[in-house]
Design a protein that fits this description.
The protein has a two-stranded antiparallel ribbon with strand order 1-2. It has a two-stranded parallel ribbon with strand order 3-4. With about 140 residues, the protein is α+β, with helices and mostly antiparallel strands. Strand 1 and strand 2 form a beta hairpin.
Length: about 140
């Protein structure tokens, strides 16, 4: 299973999708969800790593999203990497799951627990390099 997620540290908001695979089709669903989750006057700057489905020619990028690709081999610049570490360390790692359904449920539960607290989203996703880019 793959968790597609995006978060806004300044607002403490996040949106995610749990998917059975990671590909362009799933990324398009995720982009559409991000686009629909923000107010109509908001332009989203979405930081992405070098995954193939982040730069596919078949990617459908909504008008209110601008993709910001990171340099190769720089996961430390991706604020969402901190989220994945948080979810693993607090909810998902060092556990045994009975089957795929149990793992799926654990993934949903972890994401929901993480995103229900805007202060947690803001603190985990905060990256000093983004402060100059935030428009408040």
């Amino acid at each position: 299973m793959y968790l597609f997620g995006a978060a806004c540290p300044s607002r403490g908001e996040a949106v995610g999708y749990l998917m059975p695979t990671a590909n362009t089709f799933c990324m398009n669903l995720h982009l559409a969800e991000i686009s629909q989750s923000v107010d109509s006057d908001v332009q989203v700057a979405l930081v992405l790593d070098g995954a193939g489905w982040h730069s596919s020619k078949e990617l459908r990028i909504p008008d209110n999203i601008t993709l910001i690709p990171l340099p190769p081999y720089s996961p430390e610049l991706n604020p969402m990497e901190l989220v994945w570490l948080y979810l693993k360390s607090h909810y998902l790692a060092n556990r045994v799951y009975a089957d795929h359904d149990a793992l799926y449920e654990a993934g949903i539960d972890a994401w929901n627990r993480f995103t229900k607290d805007p202060k947690r989203v803001s603190s985990v996703c905060h990256a000093a390099w983004t402060e100059s880019a935030e428009l408040n």
